[in-house]
Design goal:
By secondary structure, this protein is an alpha/beta fold. It has 14 helices and 22 strands. The protein has 3 domains: about 210 residues, FAD/NAD(P)-binding domain; about 110 residues, FAD/NAD(P)-binding domain, CATH 3.50.50; about 120 residues, Enolase-like, domain 1, CATH 3.30.390.
Length: about 475
């Protein structure tokens, strides 16, 4: 008899949902987590702090109100790190309480410390005080997430040369910043600091950024960021970083030197598996510390599952939650559906981006015909009211059966709006539904109807010409 039916390593979104789903199925569940990391990277250093910081930046800078009240509009003249972090700490504290309470009311045991395998059913838990405990479980779910990858050639001093975790420990808003890596995290922070007035330079060795997104949307984002004084250096690689008393200098392979008060590396993330004792359980991680799983999130060892960022793409909180729930159901022998292939992507840049389904480039490469329906916020009454003249929603529609192939949104509320499209797509609806539906007025949701009409008018035009 094992101590628990399921023991979960890590209390991020994947771990939490795996443990709670186990408990809901009437099984005994425990979560192993460091005392100061309940909620995982998501609550403590990643999603929630960064999204709260963004909200604080938008509020205090008054950026979104400037179309209405002029370019000099600000809620607070000198924004300090304390102003920004006050909101962040408040939200983190509340969220940790919510998670602790959810675990407690579902009778999930929280085992404080870090876990490592002694064998495929036994975990040793070491807490911060050096105490050790051993627990056994029928099934084990690894949800240990990731940490920022650090190039060995760069000396991080946590003040001038930092990674994304270091953002939350800055003592002032820097006047200038270099962001190395134009991935989602790098660009989100680049846009927040640019909005605060920091002169940001983004260095990216690839030719493009966010190339999984709609090309026009990424162009629009770059235009907005340049307008906030962001400089992009694409096809450039940082050769070395020089540390100086009042900042850092990035020396690029091309010979350029870029000075800044702070340099943030955002060069991918590494799976947190190095100290898990995987070999004791008969497992091994890849070179980026990630674990391989099957469609049920089961690793190569039958009773061990892995979910969340530790298994790689898409490495998003919402996906991790669903993976956790599905893994628990499989581990408990409960029937389950496969993870939906229709997964939304949300990028909280300023302005924000969200999409679901295919991009134009993907459809073109796959030779799937499509028509584009566009709605611009500036032509919506709600867009005028909120002062968003740049927002845009694009529907990619099949001219054959009118199904929605993709929805791409850029601008205010993009990450919320995308879910209307997701619901239509997920339920097998067509653009005809959106043409006929009546939306509240004035709303941004109305953009669906406008874009649907646009797509249908284009499709009709082709049909008319072909009929003549
Ligand atoms: C700056 C930033 C911004 C982000 N923004 C977004 C966003 O806007 N939207 C979004 O969807 N996603 C975002 N993400 C990604 C999101 O945070 C992750 O996808 C999500 O947190 C992954 O969840 P997880 O379950 O893998 O666990 P994580 O949240 O990664 O947590 C893993 C936990 O495991 C614990 N752990 C590690 N080793 C052990 C061990 N041996 N024993 C016990 N516990 C252990 C760690 O202490 C940690 O608490 C962001 C990430 C970052 C870094």
């Amino acid at each position: 008899m094992y101590d628990f039916d399921v023991v979960v390593l890590g209390s991020g979104p994947g771990g939490q949902k795996a443990a709670i789903a186990t408990a809901k199925l009437g099984k005994r569940a425990a979560v192993v987590e460091r005392r100061d990391m309940v909620g995982g990277v998501c609550i403590n250093t990643g999603t929630i702090p960064s999204k709260t910081l963004r909200e604080a930046v938008l509020y205090l800078t008054g950026l979104n109100q400037r179309e209405m009240y002029g370019q000099s509009y600000r809620v607070k003249e000198d924004i300090t790190v304390a102003d920004l972090l006050a909101r962040t700490q408040h939200v983190i504290g509340r969220e940790i309480e919510v998670i602790r309470s959810q675990l407690a009311r579902n009778h999930v045991t929280l085992l404080p410390g870090l876990g490592r395998f002694l064998d495929q059913h036994t975990i040793e838990v070491i807490d911060g005080t050096g105490r050790e405990a051993t627990v056994t479980a029928d099934k084990i779910v690894i949800a240990t997430g990731t940490l920022p990858a650090r190039p060995s050639t760069v000396e991080f001093d946590e003040k001038t040369i930092i990674d994304s975790d270091g953002i939350l420990h800055l003592d002032r808003v820097p006047a200038s910043m270099i962001v190395v890596g134009a991935g989602v995290i790098g660009i989100e922070y680049a846009s927040m600091f640019a909005a605060l007035g920091t002169k940001v330079t983004v260095v990216e060795s690839r030719e493009r950024m966010l190339d999984f997104c709609d090309g026009e949307v990424v162009e629009a984002l770059k235009y907005h960021l340049r307008d906030l004084s962001v400089t992009f250096r694409f096809r450039e690689t940082v050769a070395s970083v020089q540390q100086h008393p009042r900042g850092a200098i990035a020396v690029l392979e091309s010979g350029k030197k870029i000075p800044a008060e702070v340099l943030m590396y955002s060069a991918g993330r590494q799976g947190m598996t190095a100290s898990l004792g995987l070999d004791k359980a008969g497992l091994a991680a890849d070179r980026r510390g990630r674990l391989k799983v099957d469609e049920n999130f089961r690793t190569a060892v039958d009773n061990i599952y892995a979910v969340g960022d530790v298994i790689g793409f898409p490495a998003l909180a919402a996906t991790s939650m669903e993976q956790g729930r599905l893994a628990a159901h499989h581990a408990c022998g409960e029937p389950l559906h496969a993870l939906s292939t229709l997964q939304p992507i949300g990028i909280y840049t300023i302005p924000e981006i969200s999409f679901i389904g295919k991009t134009e480039d993907e459809l073109t490469a796959e030779r799937i015909p499509f028509e584009v329906g566009v709605s611009r916020y500036r032509e919506l009454a709600r867009g005028q009211i909120i002062g968003d003249s740049y927002g845009v929603l694009k529907l990619l529609v099949s001219p054959d059966d009118h199904s929605l192939l993709g929805v791409h949104v850029f601008g205010t509320g993009a990450t919320e709006l995308v879910h209307i499209g997701q619901a239509v797509m997920g339920c097998g609806g067509t653009v005809d539904y959106l043409v006929d539906a009546v939306f509240n007025y004035p709303t941004l949701a109305e953009s669906y109807k406008v874009a649907a009409l646009d797509a249908m008018n284009k499709i009709r035009q082709i049909e008319r010409l072909s009929d003549e």
